[in-house]
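Recall that a protein's primary structure is simply its ordered list of amino acids. Everything else, from secondary elements to tertiary packing, is in principle encoded there. The following example makes that idea concrete.
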Amino acid sequence: MSSDATDLDLLLGAFDPVVRPPVLPASDVSYVVEDTAVGRMLLASTAAGDLVASAYLLPGVTEELWLERLARAVSPRVLRQPAALDEVRRELSAYLAGERRTFDLRVDLALATPFQRVVLTGLRENVPYGERTTYGALARRIGRPSASRAVGAALGANPLCVVLPCHRVVASSGALTGYAGGLAAKERLLALEST
């Protein structure tokens, strides 16, 4: 072998005749759009595997809007990578089929405001499966007794619907009020949890 061939081998690396697909860098945020029993949802997780979004896609609330929000708040490296969300999809599917009552998923509240974090954490800790509460009662539980409207607004912008169960919060009259996935989805989730 000539020294030219050796130099070329060093420059190009050893020739490997096996063709392989390219190895793409991991994403900072992986997402998938999933058709669920309660509507079309965008699910997203961080590179660490923490769920950062489980959001309804409805007219006016599009995939593109959520991807822009994720890019601004978490990282611009957002890729559709369904396999990264397999566990999320399994747990959500089992929950919606009535086969599980809680989620074992780690969540990341990067898309929530500081007040939303307080409200969503209080919701998760104080309102278990099958129970309902009111906006006022939740406000009292988080130490903000006069903030029932602010609690409602925080829940209305919940980036982790179903997993952080804002559907369990109703008006003081017991009436079902706004829900990001629509009232039919809220009714279905509450009916599921009452069985």
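The radius of gyration is 22 Å. The chain has a mean pLDDT of 90.
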